Amino acid sequence: MKKNYTIPIIVMILLFGMISFVTNLASPMGDILKNQFTIPNWQGTLGVFANFIAYALMGIPAGNLLQKRGYKSTALIAVAVGFLGVGIQLVSGLVGSFGVYLLGALVAGFSMCLLNTVVNPMLNRLGGGGNKGNQLIQFGGTFNSLCGTAVIVITGLLIPSIVDARISDTFPLMYTAMAIFALAFVVILLTNIPENTDDQSSDRPDIRSLPLKGLFDYRHFVLGAIAIFIYVGVEVGTPNILNKWLQNPDLDILSETLDDDDIAASVTGFYWLLMLVGRLIGGVIGAKVSARRMLSVAAAAACVLVVLAIFIPASVKVQFLGFNGANGFGFNLIPLSAALLVCVGLCTSVMWGGIFNLAVEGLGSYTERASGLFMALVCGGGILPLAMNGVVDIFGPAGYMPSYWIVVAGFAYILFYAIAGSKPKTVK
Question: What is the model's pTM?
Answer without folding.
Answer: 0.79
